[in-house]
Amino acid sequence: MSMAEIKGSLAGSTIAPGTEGCTESGIQIPFLQEMCDQFHDEFGYQMIFVSERGEIIAAVLRERIGTTHAIGAEIMSGKRDEGIVTEADAAQSDFMKEGVSVGIDVDGTRVAVVGITGPVEKVHPLARLAGMWVIAMVRAENARCAQEEMAEQMITQQREILEQQKEYVQERTRSIQSLLDLSGQGFLSFGADMKVRPEYSRECVEIFGEEIEGHDLSKLLYSDPQEQADFVDALALVFAGDSSPDVVFSLLDASVKIRDKTVELDFRAIDTDYIMCSLRDVSEQQMLEARISEVNELREMLLGVVMNRPHFAALVREADRLFELLNSMTASGEFTGEEENVASAYREIHTFKANASYLKLKRSVDAAHRLEDALAEFDVLTDGTSVLLRIEEMQHAFRKDLFTVKNNLGPEWIAPDETMVIPRLQLEELERQLRSEVSGGGEIADRLQRLQMVPYSTLESRVAGLVQDLASARGKRLKPLEFSGNDFLLDREYYEALSHAVTHIIRNMVDHGIERPRDRERAGKAAEGVVSISSAEQNGHVRIIIEDDGQGIDVQKVKAKAISLNLVQHNSQPSREELLKLIFKQGFSTAAYVTPTSGRGVGLVAVRDEIKRVGGKLSVSTRNGKGTRFEITIPKGSAVRGLHEG
To answer: How many Cα atoms within 13 Å fall on the side-chain side of residue 200?
Structure first.
């Protein structure tokens, strides 16, 4: 029987009033009626109990269905295949076997039909059991449906949550992307394959000039294959977990050149699989810093020249003499000269460099340092080509510094209108004539000579700033220079000689004598070192003492160096004084490396020669861990006078 026939057989009939829950013969089965009511109230289904004769034993219907109905008869007579309905009906109606059909749809009403075999009088146990089974089955079906519905709701909720989370992540990604774009920096990430991931800031496009997703970062940063390979090898250690990321990152280039831009790099490990690289275009910043540095250098140079005008004038005269000496050694178009002349030129250049450094003439200082390098190579290679080039370079650098001073301070600044420049030789000739040819001219000559003399105390202003500048450049700390003792007048030549000597000594003290703050504290000293200069007149001489409280001169190191230079025999036992005299030999230095200020073994040789040139004497004493003391003695005379002497 088809569903249409079932519907037809059930349509148009109702159970007569008073007959619900009883058979046609009047047999009351109230518990089945209660079961039908319970089933209807709980599930909304109609439950019909049908006898083997097709009688409706119990039902809840407001419309008459009929006292007999074909489905019941067919169920109970076994005419239906497989016990209840055909396979087609089962597929449509979800019939359950063994005489029970659940889910028949009759005009929109779901009906459960229970077929009962046997006489109606004996139906109670079987009908009750069948009804309970139907109720349990329907409850299970409803539970399953409820679970499926709940699962579907949960799936729907999870989908909604996932969509919300996806939208949140996308919004966060957009926000972070916006922040990265607004930061003005390039941000990108990459994995072990070096390929740039899709997420990177807009600045990366500005830096590289193209979209970079999927590009090899090593090729983006470097054009040289070897540099690319080194970069990949270094980061492979990080991805493999063989080295600490921070250690590897610290060894990578801090900046690279990309499309004529200077780009600063910084690397951070995101996790074990990815590394983030930030890029910052510092080209404009570098240009600005370079410009600021130029302005600061110009300001320092002009300030140094203005505050030390006599020293600047002396440096100009010194440069004239030096260039005359160097030109005489290059007159043939090649650099030539006796060993003694070369050594003398070496010392003069070193002194020039020291004095130019004091006045902040950076171009001249750098050029002089390169010329010293060329001279040192000349001693070994005897090739004067590089020396010639460096001489020209130094002369050009000094002329450029001189032009800068004149251009900013005015050409008249070096020789202002109220000053008359008289060549030194002419003044000396005038003094000679006054003394020998003019009656009473000796007194005038003395006064003329006195006008040319310089107070020794002016040396303080020169070396005080020098000491602090040198200490700062070396990472050392010094107390203000201690300058004490008698003042006196010096002939300008004597003053310049003494000034050069003191400058060289102080440079060596700061470079090699004074320890760094931590080393001083470990030795039980104050963190700040002390350098002092004192003077006194004694027995017709002027004595100047320069001393420090540094580490002293390592005499054993001096001996080892002397042995390596064949100045001392290995098995000899020179005295402490003899060893200390060796530090004044040309080219002798115990320094491990050359610095812009010392380490060539030239400075103390220049000190010795300057003091010797003015008839003075030089001695040195030292105590290990306590400091070093240099003593300069100059005889008083016409070139060295007390302040109040005639």
So the answer is: 27
Domain(s) of CATH 1.20.120: residues in the chain: 295-409
pLDDT tens-digit series, residues 51-105: 544 455 555 443 333 333 444 444 444 443 323 333 343 333 333 333 444 444 4
According to CATH, what is the number of the domain 454-642? 3.30.565.10
CATH classification (class only), 184-281: alpha beta
Question: pLDDT digit string (tens) for 279-298?
Answer: 988 888 888 888 888 888 88
Q: Which two tokens stand for residue 642?
A: 């007390």
* Protein fold of 295-409: Four Helix Bundle (Hemerythrin (Met), subunit A) (1.20.120)
CA distances from 568 to 62, 553, 573 (A): 135, 18, 9
Q: Measure the CA–CA gap between 107 and 103, rounded to whole angstroms.
A: 12
For the entire predicted model, the pTM comes to: 0.48
Length of the chain: 646
Q: Which two tokens stand for residue 373?
A: 């390098």
- Could you give the CA distance from residue 616 to residue 634 in angstroms, rounded to a whole number? 4
Residue 607 to residues 118, 130, 498, Cα–Cα distance (Å): 139, 127, 8
Q: How far apart (Å, rounded) are the C-alpha atoms in residues 446 and 451? A: 9
Instruction: Tell me how far apart the terminal alpha carbons of the chain are, to the nearest angstrom.
Output: 153
Helix (H, G, I), strand (E, B) or coil at 627: strand
- Domain span(s) for CATH 3.30.450.20 in the chain: 184-281
3-state secondary structure 511-546: HHHCCCHHHHHHCCCCCCECEEEEEEEECCEEEEEE
What is the C-alpha to C-alpha distance for residues 359 and 368, in angstroms, rounded to an integer?
Answer: 14
Strand partners, 637: 640
